[in-house]
Specification:
With 336 residues, the chain is α/β, with parallel strands linked by helices. A 7-stranded mixed beta sheet has the order 1-10-2-3-4-6-9, sandwiched between helices. Helix 1 runs antiparallel to helix 12 and helix 4 runs parallel beside helix 5.
Length: 336
């Protein structure tokens, strides 16, 4: 057992040296590449082909030889007929938007939308899976504007909500021609919220002075460290109300039939309730919609992602190696 422990310590030292060397190499490479432009890549996945392959695999497992022969004959006939059909195949492009607080994912969304606008033909559709509880107004405002590019180009698109599209998430969803939500998806929250702590009393208790200088009466309304005033609170609340008005106007523009007095209270609802209020148009999951569209459309998933830098790949590989060594050492020293 002592031999194993000593061997483990030696191995750990060796790995540490290797990691140090790799780190130096990474830094050198990264410094040489820092002036190069970081570009991403579009990844196109044929979902129709994947579903068809799944169907074929299941048929081969479940059917008898006689039934399988008849099935394969039918498939060949259908393929032959499709080859003779000169009508263009309508396409559906599926996008995923899983939003963070600042909606930073809009950088990829804008690239995906641009690609669709370039390639889309008459009869094509877009399906956007939105998952977000909302966040910064300007971030989700831009994300919504990106989706509006599809409407401006008269490309029909549907938003699917499997889990949550609230606040900024619903701001994006309402731009769609059609909103589909799972039965227990969280929808709505058409409201505005802002909150911040204030440490002014704590600073005074410890005799710490805090100074803030501004030009303009309302350059700052509420602060974290300064002593807030009733005038500042009133102005801050006014700004929230103005933002809420803009939010409601935005929703009303795309879904004019909504009773805003009823739904723009900041509350959220589940899918089953949301359809009764007119917040969504159909109850289903994104999987249901994809299967339905795949019957008479070619369905593709489109994703724009940043290319990983060589430094990131090396660092990731080094991290995996360290984890592997640590796990092995743990197994060696684990009592039986």
């Amino acid at each position: 057992m002592n031999f194993l422990i000593e061997y483990g310590m030696f191995l750990a030292k060796a790995v540490t040296i290797v990691i140090a060397i790799v780190t130096v190499v990474v830094v050198v490479i990264a410094s040489g590449m820092k002036n190069k432009t970081d570009k991403g890549e579009l990844i196109l996945t044929d979902l129709s082909d994947e579903l068809l392959q799944l169907k074929h695999d299941l048929k081969h497992e479940l059917l008898s030889k006689k039934q399988l022969k008849a099935y394969e004959k039918k498939v060949k006939a259908e393929d032959k007929a499709a080859d003779k059909n000169e009508q263009p195949i309508k396409k559906v492009y599926v996008l995923d938007f899983k939003g963070s607080i600042d909606a930073g994912e809009v950088a990829s969304l804008r690239e995906e939308i641009t690609a669709i606008l370039i390639i889309a033909e008459e009869g094509d559709q877009v399906l956007v899976n939105v998952e977000s509880g909302g966040g910064m107004v300007h971030g989700y405002g831009l994300a919504s504007s990106q989706l509006d590019r599809l409407r401006q180009a008269n490309i029909p698109f549907t938003v699917c909500i499997d889990k949550v599209a609230a606040s900024g998430g619903y701001m994006m969803a309402c731009v769609a021609n059609k909103i589909v939500a799972a039965p227990f998806a969280i929808v709505g929250s058409i409201g505005v919220v802002a909150q911040l702590p204030n440490f002014s009393r704590l600073l005074k208790k410890h005799e710490i002075d805090y100074e803030q200088h501004t030009a303009g009466n309302f350059k700052r309304t509420l602060t974290v460290f300064g002593e807030n005033t009733d005038e500042g609170r009133e102005k801050f609340q006014q700004e929230l109300e103005e933002t809420h008005v803009l939010f409601k106007q935005f929703v009303s523009h795309y879904r004019p039939a909504l009773d805003l007095d009823k739904v723009a209270t900041g509350e959220h609802w589940y899918g089953k309730q949301a359809i009764e209020l007119g917040l969504v148009d159909e109850i289903a999951t994104s999987d249901d919609i994809v299967l339905q569209l795949a019957k008479d459309h070619q369905v593709y998933k489109l994703k724009y992602q940043m290319k990983k830098k060589l430094a990131d790949k090396i660092a990731h590989g080094a991290s995996l190696s360290v984890n592997s060594v640590v796990n092995k050492l743990t197994e060696l020293n684990r009592p039986i």
